Amino acid sequence: MNFELLIPIAFFAAVAYVIKVVVDAGVRRRMVEANGSQELVRSILLGEEQRSRLGSLRWGVILIALAVGFGIVDAGNWDELTPGVLAILLGATGLGNLVYYAFARRQGG
To answer: Which pLDDT belongs to residue 36?
Structure first.
């Protein structure tokens, strides 16, 4: 594997995450400073927490489905990218999204 390529990608991902955290903290601070009603601030923060939780669930389900898809490709000893291999991986991604949708709908999200 080419680790020289992985370092800049990880660096830019970390920078993007830090920017997101700083912006989110600034928005929360301004919301509290605006002297909005406590009920409004609480409902916004609870909505954010729910969205974050569902986002984690979505990525977890999709990544597990993709791992199963890659496992199927590896078990079949398919070394080249063919339409069949691509169909398995895309199908696994789609299946992961559908499973997430079922979980989110059951939770009322």
So the answer is: 66
pTM of the model as a whole: 0.62
C-alpha distances in Å from residue 93, one per residue of 18, 81, 89, 101: 28, 16, 6, 12
Instruction: Please report the pLDDT score of residue 109 as a whole number.
Output: 53
Tell whether the torsion through CA atoms of 67, 69, 72 and 74 is positive or negative: negative
Where b means 16+ CB within 10 Å and e means fewer, 29-60 reads eeeeeeeeeeeeeeeeeeeeeeeeeeeebbee
CB 37 within 8 A of CB 27: no
Intervals of the chain under pLDDT 70? 1, 36, 108-109
